[in-house]
# Entry
Amino acid sequence: MSTSRQLPLPFAVIPGYCAADFLDAPANAEARAWLARPADWPARQLALWGEAGVGKSHLLYLWARRLGALILSGPSLVAPIVPPTTALALDDADLFAAEPPLLHLLNIAAETGFPLLMAARSPPARWPVRLPDLASRLAATAAVEVGAPDEGLLGALFARLLSTRQLLLSPPLASFLLARLPRHPAALAEAVVRLDRAGLAAGRPLTRGLALAALAPLIGSEPEIDCEKSGTPSPQAHPLL
# Structure
C-alpha cells in the first residue's frame, strides 16, 4: 500500500513591527533618542540609515503609529501625494521610484510643518539624484545611523527570529550555529529561513547535520554527515569518548 506524504508549504512571515518585538540596544540608542524629540529635528525631517536588518523599518513603524503618521514606501512613490494632515513616514526612502515625487514630499513636509521620518540604507546626502533642488534638500536632512548589532543583540535577534517561525533548537545547537554565521542581521534572517525550509522538508527536528547542510552557503563550510539519517553512530555516543 502506497502512502502519500503531505508536502510542507512555506508561508511568508510578515513583520508586525510590534513594540514588544523591538530590541533596545546601544546600537540603536541614538536613533531612539532622536525619535523621541521630533520638534528638535532640523526642518522637522530626519533619516534613519544603516545596513539591512538593523531595525530601521521597525523604528519607523513604531514612531509612525505613535504619532498617527501616514506611512509611505519609496518604491511606491510614483506621483505627488495629497497634502497630509499628519506626520509622514517614508520607508525604503532611498529606493524612490522617481525624483519629482520625492522632492514634492519633502516640500510638502517643509510647508506644512509636519515631521517627516525616512528610513534607508545610506544617508540622504549620498543618494544619487539629479535634481539640484532635491539634492539640496537631502543634503540638509539630518541623518542618524542605526549601528550594527553587538554580540548580545545578535544572539537575541537570532532567538527572536527562530521563535517567530516556531523553530525549536537546543541552546547548544543555536549557539553553535550563531557562532559560525556572518555577523549581520540580514544573514541571520536568511539563515532562519533556510533552517525553516530544511526542517519542513525533513519532517523532523533539526539536527546539527541538517542545520549545517542548510546553512552551508552562508557559513562556507562542508556539511557534516547527519548521523541520525545515515545510521552512522555519532562520535559523542561512543562509550569511550
In short: The two ends are 43 Å apart (CA to CA). Confidence is low (pLDDT under 50) at residues 1-13, 222-241. The longest helix spans residues 185-202.
